[in-house]
């Protein structure tokens, strides 16, 4: 296994210049200023273990604290981890929609499905917004409640919190 090299002083200067704003080098993880240049470490954007090259376009400055915590994660994975840690440390109640919004964006989930129940009441037709044939599934009836239900694996863009079940 190859050992990845550290950037040399000339490369560090170039990397720092590329990531400096308002006179401060910025941590690539969350863009906070690094006050003390001796606290700057360098991390691969595409991990070395995934054939990321030790070249200026693939290296970024990170503060020493983040560099210690990042471990073998990529910077993108570490950013996502920090975002989820902040999310779950918030004392407010959390719902499925909150997680979907963080992971996908506010307009990327909860899309409406078109459905049609057969005249005999024993099948449901699901019409996705993509072109293609609708999906026809059997409808079952709950013996206790009499409610009809069906099983389906949906693309995540159709998933949304049911506030009647989880207010």
TrEMBL record:
Top-rank taxon: Bacteria
Source organism per UniProt: Candidatus Hakubella thermalkaliphila
InterPro entries for the chain: HNH_nuc (IPR003615)
Residue ranges constituting the HNH nuclease domain according to the UniProt record: 14-68
Protein name stated in the entry: HNH nuclease domain-containing protein
Gene3D superfamilies noted in UniProt: 1.10.30.50
């Amino acid at each position: 296994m190859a050992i990845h090299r550290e950037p040399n002083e000339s490369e560090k200067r170039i990397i720092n210049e590329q990531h400096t704003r308002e006179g401060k080098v910025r941590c690539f993880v969350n863009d906070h200023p690094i006050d003390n240049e001796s606290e700057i470490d360098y991390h691969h954007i595409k991990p070395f273990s995934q054939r990321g090259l030790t070249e200026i376009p693939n290296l970024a400055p990170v503060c020493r604290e983040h560099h210690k915590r990042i471990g073998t994660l990529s910077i993108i994975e570490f950013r996502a981890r920090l975002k989820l840690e902040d999310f779950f440390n918030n004392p407010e109640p959390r719902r499925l929609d909150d997680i979907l919004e963080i992971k996908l964006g506010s307009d990327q989930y909860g899309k409406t499905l078109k459905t049609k129940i057969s005249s005999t009441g024993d099948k449901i037709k699901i019409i996705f917004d993509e072109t293609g044939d609708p999906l026809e599934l059997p409808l079952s009836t709950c013996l206790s409640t009499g409610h009809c239900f069906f099983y389906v694996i949906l693309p995540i863009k159709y998933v949304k919190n049911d506030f009647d079940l989880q207010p």
